């Protein structure tokens, strides 16, 4: 038996929900923006081959790769003596804010779980994904692994019974994402945030997030856009992302409805309900925010499917 799994890119936070909201991305041109992991039998132990556009940014030693570590964990937990050969196709840049480590971890654990006849149920597998991704990003937060695995827009619940649940999204929104080409460490970007917040910020954060979730259920796009604001992270991270503030202002002038940092950056996202405006925003970002040859941009919808096996 052999199989290949695709795990989509994701936006942590989605601006308004620091560590609590995340969404999976699907470029509208039909391309796949995410890592792939293939698994097959091997003679013994764990073998890992890494390929793909962003492979050379990963540690050269396979044992240091998180995909290798996921496989080793599975084999040990299930007490498997036979071997597995994995191939990681690394299609997302590391430290991009597009859930690159989540994509590798989710694809690997999903593939291993399928290969070994699903020893983990959905919630247990998701918790495992969070733990492994946390080894790379420096802390466990599910806002990338959850949408990457399950698709759509996911709200973190983090109760004993349920890690997260999906909330409705706006079908006619376009999410323009632009990765400028530099890499930023998630743990360093997390350190930029203060340990304590003013009461007024805490209230604004709660109000914005709850109003956004409410608006999503009501399908009230105007309300959703008016509260799609990041009071928790953006004020402390914006200046650490070269060109971000300039881009946000320019996108606002182009008529984009809201712009924010995807995860911990440097990728930015910008929302509109007009394809024409999305295309104008993408053209501006390609000329002014994206380093040619190093970065990229996509006009996306949300990926409703999440992680899946592909041919
Ligand atoms: N919620 C996380 C953060 C996402 O903003 O640090 C990045 O992994």
Descriptive tags:
311 residues, alpha+beta, Ribosomal Protein S5, domain 2, Alpha-Beta Plaits, 8-stranded antiparallel sheet, 23% strand, binds L-homoserine, kinase
* Domain tally: 2
The kinds of small molecule bound in this structure are: L-homoserine
Major sheet summary line:
8 strands, antiparallel
Radius of gyration using CA atoms only: 19 Å
The secondary structure category is alpha+beta
Give the mean pLDDT. 96
Number of helices: 10
Fraction of residues in β-strands: 15-25%
CATH architecture label of the largest domain: 2-Layer Sandwich
Distance between the termini: 13 Å
Principal-axis shape equals globular
What report would you give on this structure?
Helix content is 36%, strand content 23%. The protein is globular, with a radius of gyration of 19 Å. It has helices at 66-77, 100-115, 122-137, 145-150, 186-191, 199-218, 221-227, 234-237, 244-253, 275-288, and strands at residues 3-8, 10-12, 21-27, 34-42, 46-51, 83-89, 153-156, 164-167, 174-179, 258-261, 268-272, 296-302, 308-310. The longest helix has 20 residues, at 199-218. The chain folds into 2 domains: 2-168 and 305-310, Ribosomal Protein S5, domain 2, CATH 3.30.230.10; 174-302, GHMP kinase, C-terminal domain (Alpha-Beta Plaits, 2-Layer Sandwich), CATH 3.30.70. It is an alpha+beta fold and 311 residues long. The model has no long low-confidence stretch (mean pLDDT 96). It contains 10 helices and 13 strands. It starts with a strand and ends with a strand. α1 links the parallel β5 (46-51) and β6. α1 (66-77) runs parallel beside α2 and α2 (100-115) packs antiparallel against α3. Strands 2, 3, 7, 8, 9, 10, 11 and 12 form an 8-stranded antiparallel sheet that branches. A 5-stranded mixed sheet has the order 5-6-4-1-13, with helices on one face. The structure holds L-homoserine. L-homoserine (HSE) binds at residues 12-13, 18-19, 137, 141, 143-144, 186, 189-190, 233, 263-264.
